[in-house]
Amino acid sequence: MVYEAQIDNPMVSWQMLRAAQLIKQFERFLAQDGSLQNAHALLLLEAAAAGAAVPALDNSPVLEEAQAFIKSRPRFFGSGARGDALALLPPNGFLPQGSEAKRDRPCIEVVKALSTYQVLFDALVLREHEPLEMAVLQEYPLLILADCGALSESQQETLLAYARQGGKVLAHGQLDAGLEEALRQTSRLTRTQDSDFAEVAMARFTAALRQVMKPVRTARLTDLRVGLRRNASGGATFLHLFNFNYVPGKGLQAMENITVFSSIKGVVSIHSLSGGQMPYALQENEEGLAIQLEHLPLYAVIEITQ
Question: Which pTM does this prediction carry?
Answer without folding.
Answer: 0.79
